[in-house]
Input
Amino acid sequence: MKLIPGIAISASALTAQKLWMDLIANNIANMNTTRTEGGGPYRRQMPVFRERLKEAMEGGYRGNGVRVERIIEDATPPRMVYNPDHPDADENGFVAMPNINIVNEMIDLIAASRAYEANVTVLNTAKSMALKALEIGR
Output
């Protein structure tokens, strides 16, 4: 019975989902940030997940968990909001606001949370199986 690889795979998924939730929290926190160090409004960040591969004995590859390959910025253009009194308003009175939609962020948060919960369940099941296996040896 191979429990440790299963635990490692779930642990890698927990790490990836936590990072996704951190990015979502960062996106929500910066919903009104109109000026960044790089210039312009804050841009929504998203993770790109990739399967971690391990070379198997037969020469092929098999899955060994998940990793965050990179973090990308959403290419959607900023929302233009009319607010001539804002310090970042252009000559026409429009302010470039971040390209963040709270509904999309909440949907992503629910998906990341459910994936996290599923992997916690897998870890608890693997732990329970290991304890039962130890009881057999008594």
